[in-house]
Design a protein that fits this description.
By secondary structure, this protein is an alpha/beta fold. The chain is built from 9 helices and 16 strands.
């Protein structure tokens, strides 16, 4: 039987990735401390891999495809196929940022002031390239953790990953620049991508995951609308595509269905009711395939 070796990121991205896979239709169950989680697809063999290492194993072909951050693909300079970008992170469904931060009272005001300074980060290669492109020479050293605590006593600045900025603010740090934005990406090895069966399997997985991300903050609305109220109701509806309109039995009116952003629904439903819509149903969506 054909089988795809698929890497799931271990650590901060693990829970959100497992939840996104569930929305895409795949149930993943970690078993104690095992690095081989169970997945309800006999054609997939799942492995837990640190996102920092994922692209290296995919490039070598040890892993056929996997989820990791675009930042680690860039850091490792890995020659892999980026199948789809998936805008989810540990806490939010937005890109994360690697920012340059200094102490609140530091005299360093901008990136140009980093000339000759010391910087600590996990993203050494990307940071070095960022500085060289701007003609800045600085000492960039690898950080083994607790990066926020190293400013200002040990280094002049740090380059650190942030989603909300809370940790930086808690450590009294000030952002002076952004090195890169990053999203979760589904990547594949060149070898797997050249294999017709594996490529189709990876493309299917990417399509379903992308649909799960798109559907995360969207809901569906169904309602019945009398004939004389259709025009007004349709004028109120924002839609991913044009709303679906079907005739009701006995020519009693129309059944209308649409997809929209969840925050919009709470303000829209009372307006639809006042416009004559009845039997309004809001329902969650696992995935939306565009």
């Amino acid at each position: 039987m054909n089988q795809l070796v698929f890497g799931i990121p271990k650590g901060s991205l693990q829970e959100s990735s497992v939840q996104m896979l569930l929305r895409a239709g795949y149930r993943v169950q970690a078993r104690g401390r095992s690095y081989y989680p169970a997945i309800d697809d006999d054609e997939i063999q799942a492995r837990l891999i640190r996102p920092q290492d994922m692209s290296r194993f995919v490039e070598k072909g040890t892993i056929d495809a996997g989820l990791t951050g675009a930042d680690w693909v860039a850091e490792n300079e890995s020659d892999v196929v980026t199948v789809v970008e998936l805008a989810y992170a540990k806490q939010q469904f937005v890109p994360i940022q690697w920012v340059i931060a200094v102490a609140e009272d530091s005299p360093i005001e901008g990136v140009d002031d980093l000339q000759g300074k010391s910087i600590s980060t996990e993203l050494v290669n990307v940071t070095g390239k960022f500085l060289r492109e701007r003609g800045i020479e600085a000492e960039v050293e690898f950080s083994h953790g607790a990066t926020e605590t190293k400013v200002p006593d040990l280094v002049d600045a740090i380059v650190e990953l942030t989603e909300t900025g809370e940790s930086l603010r808690a450590n009294r740090l000030r952002v002076i620049g952004t090195v890169m934005e990053s999203t979760t990406v589904l990547i594949a090895s060149r070898e797997a991508w050249d294999d017709p069966w594996k490529r189709t399997k990876i493309e299917n997985l990417g399509m379903l995951l992308q649909g799960a991300v798109v559907g995360q903050n969207k809901v569906g609305l169904k309602m019945n609308v009398p004939k004389d109220g259709l025009k007004q109701v349709l004028s109120l509806l924002p839609a991913l595509r044009n709303p679906t309109v079907n005739d009701l039995a006995d020519e009693a009116g129309y059944a209308v269905e649409t997809v929209l952003d969840e925050p919009v629904a709470r303000d829209l439903i009372p307006k639809l009711k006042r416009a004559g819509a009845e039997g309004i149903i809001e329902y969650p969506l696992n995935k939306v395939i565009l």
